[in-house]
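ping. complex inputs:
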Amino acid sequence: MVIEKMEVTSCKSVAEIEKLCFSTPWSKASLENEFNLSYAHYFCVKEQNQVVAYVGVHNICQEGEITTFAVHPAHRRKGFGYRLLKELISYEKKQGIKLLNLEVRQGNIPAVSLYEGLGFEKVGVRKGYYQNPTEDGILMTLHL
Ligand SMILES: CC(C)(COP(=O)(O)OP(=O)(O)OC[C@H]1O[C@@H](n2cnc3c(N)ncnc32)[C@H](O)[C@@H]1OP(=O)(O)O)[C@@H](O)C(=O)NCCC(=O)NCCS
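pong. complex structure:
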């Protein structure tokens, strides 16, 4: 397993994984636009030179906000998600980030369990934030 800075050329593969994982996926174009933003940072995991997991973050004023995070369905429960987020946390610390925030569907047990295992705490709820299907969003935070 290799964790590396994502390159813009990986946006096509990532957009395909997004479609497999989310009802409102990021498009290839919207992902490519992230590479024009100085505060956006993306990492991916590759296996046999193929992207199998990725995470993005926006760093603004010592706070990081996770934008998207997923592991290809065929590669889950192998520790990729955990190790990728551990790496992101370590990167964020080095960047001087003090707080890492994210939002997750209330019923997304795999993701919530993973985040809690890394020390994220539930700090708020956004009622009906998600669509297709409508669901509350849970705000989670990790103090670095
Ligand atoms: C959430 C997700 C990223 C987890 O990735 P993963 O690589 O399969 O997770 P890992 O193998 O690293 O598991 C780490 C921990 O997460 C939790 N976890 C992962 N999958 C789980 C599941 N299906 N059920 C319950 N807990 C789960 C467990 O606590 C696990 O630790 P354990 O293996 O010691 O039990 C993956 O399921 C995914 O891509 N889901 C769809 C996209 C998504 O929901 N992204 C998050 C949006 S906020």
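The helical segments are 11-21, 28-34, 80-94, 109-117.
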